[in-house]
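ARCHIVE CARD
CATEGORY: sequence design from structure
SOURCE FIELD: tokenized fold
FIELD CONTENT:
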């Protein structure tokens, strides 16, 4: 299996670098855009398997970027995880746009990696064609949920080692 390619859309250099290092350490190929326009260019040129998007990026806002990425490319919409310092209430808005996950900053690297692995594995099962690498993440992961009332699937992560655990859907 080949490495999955993750597009990190983050305008703060320190955060983007931490994401890049941790995701590469987990076995992913990482692309990094510091604004929404650059993110769209990288999507067209590199065709990533998933994007993490900060809502407060310049040029094209994260909200608009999520909307564009979800409706942009064949064979289907790009999975998107919103990673932001904004209030959890913002999750309702991004869920309506079609985001596949929502994480509030600051986040732990294992939390981000686990959510990426889950979303890519779910996509591979549903679409039967996305190849992802096994990264073997372990560690405890706190609950990560989409807001109630969302039309998206709610995913909760067990607060125990992920060695054999998997998220549960409700």
């Amino acid at each position: 299996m080949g490495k999955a390619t993750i597009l990190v859309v983050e305008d703060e250099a320190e955060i983007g670098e931490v994401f890049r290092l941790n995701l590469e350490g987990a076995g992913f190929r990482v692309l990094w855009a510091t604004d929404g326009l650059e993110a769209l260019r990288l999507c067209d040129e590199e065709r990533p398997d998933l994007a993490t998007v900060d809502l407060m990026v310049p040029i094209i806002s994260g909200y608009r970027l999520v909307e564009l990425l979800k409706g942009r490319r064949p064979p289907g919409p790009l999975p998107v995880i919103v990673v932001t310092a904004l209030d959890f209430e913002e999750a309702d808005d991004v869920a309506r746009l079609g985001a596949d996950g929502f994480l509030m900053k600051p986040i732990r690297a294992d939390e981000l990696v686990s959510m990426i692995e889950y979303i890519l594995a779910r996509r591979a099962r549903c679409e039967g064609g996305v190849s992802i690498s096994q990264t073997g993440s372990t560690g405890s992961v706190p609950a990560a949920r989409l807001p109630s009332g969302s039309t998206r699937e709610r995913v909760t992560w067990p607060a125990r080692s992920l060695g054999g655990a998997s998220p549960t859907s409700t």
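CARD ANNOTATION: The longest helix spans residues 109-127. The chain has one domain: 5-137.
SHELF: design records, drawer C
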